[in-house]
Amino acid sequence: MTTPIQPALDGSVPTAPTNDYDTWLATVWPVFIAAAAAGSTFTCYSVADTHKLPNPPKPQAHWGRLMTLLRDEGYIRTTGWACSDRPTTHHSGVRTWRGTAAARRDAA
Question: What domain range is 102 assigned to?
């Protein structure tokens, strides 16, 4: 049975979570590689929100796992901390990231 998706207060319809982790990863990976190649500092949420990326099957764990994979592959590195702009976090601290030289080379 499919659960209907409730529109947001601004009228936009959020994307439904993808039930398959590998499919979700294949969807969001190139977007984060492009963000890393741009060379500016970003948070995970800022990239996901800007590009209206779908939520993973387990948002509490998979967003962090994505960032760990990108770091382990050498595409990003931590640059510090910032207050989250995600509406549900009440401005809690989150890591900020920046792309590495490897990410810029892969984008070229």
Answer: 21-107
